């Protein structure tokens, strides 16, 4: 066995090094700082990521998103500047072009599949609590960011571990239960019609917990926690491992509440009554199924 192989095995053995008790008790309940041992992993270095960008563009073009420019914290994702360069050229110019690159579903790349798959197994083993039975899907993202670039304010459907690999940056995370920061209506719109529904409110910035990320640490971000990121004056690389839950009741309750609110009613937020949540969720099943069927029909028509 080569020295490099042994080194890789050791690196993959560790992954997140945070205490298992903290991982288990805090998972999807609170945001908290974590530590990891992946900083030197060969697959997470810039030269390998250049190759990943080229390979992804050729084989899985939907697996990479990028934009570049002066971005505000409250900028909507559908109002990003026009792209100036190809993805590979953007990677080459990463020091100066103000870019934010997102490699999606990196576990689908054959060279990353085993590494990321074993990582998730280790994380799940640390968390315990029969986590596997609640999971809809696992995935991994890699962010590559130019100096001083901002990642805009948003919430996610996924529960994530953001691991800082290269460079330093600050992530600001808000309390998902603070209804002044994140009103119920914004959550409902997010889960129903608008991925950009949460609105940044600068007057509440002081309520955020700000974590300084550096190689070797990271944060756990529960579902629905608003956050935004400021990169320091350096190129940043971060690995984000995500899990999306089988949370049909939560998602459908938000959808039902969105529908009720458009009728002028003030619906009860999810979590206050499991029976009401269940009824609301059941009421949305045919709606969601019809939407999925229409979406499938539209895609079949496009391809036929
Ligand atoms: Fe996020």
Helix and strand layout, with pairings?
Blueprint: H1 3-14, H2 20-26, E1 32-35, H3 46-59, E2 64-68, H4 87-92, E3 99-103, H5 110-127, E4 135-145, E5 150-154, E6 159-166, E7 169-173, H6 184-192, E8 209-213, E9 217-221, E10 227-231, E11 236-245, H7 248-262, H8 274-303
The chain binds fe (ii) ion.
Fe (ii) ion binds at residues 154, 156, 227.
Provide an overview of this structure.
- It is a single chain.
- This protein is of the alpha+beta class and 304 residues long.
- It folds into two domains: 3-246, Sandwich (Jelly Rolls); 249-303, no CATH class.
- The chain is built from eight helices and eleven strands.
- It binds fe (ii) ion (FE2).
Summarize the structure.
The chain is of the alpha+beta class and 304 residues long.
Top keywords for this entry?
Jelly Rolls, 8 helices, binds fe (ii) ion, 7-stranded antiparallel sheet, 2 domains, globular, 304 residues, alpha+beta, 11 strands, 4-stranded antiparallel sheet
Order of strands across the biggest sheet? 1-9-6-11-4-3-2
Note the overall shape. globular
Give the proportion of residues in helices.
Answer: 25-40%
Uncertain ranges: none
Order of helices and strands: HHEHEHEHEEEEHEEEEHH
Helix count equals: 8
The biggest sheet, with number of strands, parallel, antiparallel or mixed sense and barrel status, is: 7 strands, antiparallel
* Strand proportion: 15-25%
